[in-house]
Amino acid sequence: MSTRDLVLAALFAAIIVALGLLPPIMLGFIPVPITAQSMGVMLAGVILGARRGTVAVLLVLLLAAIGLPVLSGGRGGLAVFAAPTTGYLIGWVFAAFVTGALAERLVRPAQGALAQSLGFFAAAVAGGVVVLYAFGITYLAVVTGIDFGKAFLGSMAFIPGDLIKAAVAALAARAVMAGYPLLPARA
Amino acid sequence: MNSLYVEGDSFLHRLPPGLKLLLLLAVSLALFLTRSPLFLGGAAAAGVLLYASLGIGWRQSWIRLRPILLTIAIVALATLLLESVEDGMVALLRLTTLMLVAAAVTATTPVGAFIDAVTRAALPLEKLGLVRASDIGLAVGLVIRFVPEVISRYQALRTAHQARGLKVRPTTMIVPLIIQTLKSADEIAAAIDARGIRGQKRQRKS
């Protein structure tokens, strides 16, 4: 990894931490406040690509593990990895990787704005929703002994908020690509 | 950013961090290999005693553990209602014990000692060419250094929005925040290389 890649991943990890410290954002059209931190994971993938995005997320988790309160709501320490929702934290790593890998393959600088935004949205949903929930729900079901189908249904309540986050992440990624492109292109 | 480490001189404070992490791993495996209520109950009581022996105080402990306890309580209640009373109790005892032991390790290990332990653990990976062990500490330091920077940029952007009578929306805040922050990467990378912090002798890849 070049020094620049390392610094980019570290800076993005700082952005993810900062997103968790900010007060939850109200989106206006839904009454639930959303925390921006899980959107940071999608953003890391669509903006930095698979490799650097994954390193950024790993750094955030490492900071949490060594006792810094970097997760939303000031959570941190090894205890956050002993919660029933730990599967989502583990899933973050794979979510960022899949989001980044898809974004690198789906989005080209030559495409129109709409095609780019849709490509980023598809990547963010596949990684930040499908892959993330696969890890989160499986872990929840294994640790608590709740039936997998029931755990799946119970988690559906959070899907609409995450789809909105994916849409915001896609628009932001499109704008960053236009202003300061960083995503490595793949054939 | 204040770390969750608490000054002290308990038995746990004096154990080396690597050993504490191995013990934590052993505890978590033991907890998930058994369903015996007697064993899990005893383990939970031992966890409470261990955490109490650190002398953190009830108030501070409650503030630290509340968010995770709340999640555990909700999920244990859901398990109890959806599956059985026994399943609910097992989930509650297992997760609470694990949380207490993990929180105890965090409270007795300073961040620097953790970074040393992680760096040493990464040395075998370095031999495989996967990662440079010394980069881990460098990257962690960079993140800690830049979190306040990102927050002050966010506040400046919010002020700029308000001065122009714009509503503070995530879509209009995130993009300038990310571009401004990532644009400083080149300068920081150049500064790191100019000081030879990552070493000059080895060939840099790509």
UniProtKB/TrEMBL annotation, chain A:
Signal peptide: none annotated. InterPro entries: BioY. It is found in: Cell membrane. Keywords: Cell membrane, Membrane, Transmembrane, Transmembrane helix, Transport. The chain crosses the membrane at residues 55-74, 86-107, 119-143. It is a multi-pass membrane protein. GO terms for cellular component: plasma membrane. Gene3D superfamilies: 1.10.1760.20. One of its GO terms (molecular function) is biotin transmembrane transporter activity. Belongs to the BioY family. PANTHER family: BIOTIN TRANSPORTER BIOY, BIOTIN TRANSPORTER BIOY-RELATED. This is Biotin transporter.
TrEMBL record, chain B:
It is a multi-pass membrane protein. Pfam families: CbiQ (PF02361). It comes from the Bacteria. The chain crosses the membrane at residues 12-32, 38-56, 68-85, 91-115. One of its GO terms (cellular component) is plasma membrane. Keywords: Membrane, Transmembrane, Transmembrane helix. InterPro entries: ABC/ECF_trnsptr_transmembrane. Its main location: membrane. It is found in: Membrane. Belongs to the CbiQ family. PANTHER family: PROTEIN ABCI12, CHLOROPLASTIC. This is Transporter. It comes from Pseudorhizobium pelagicum.
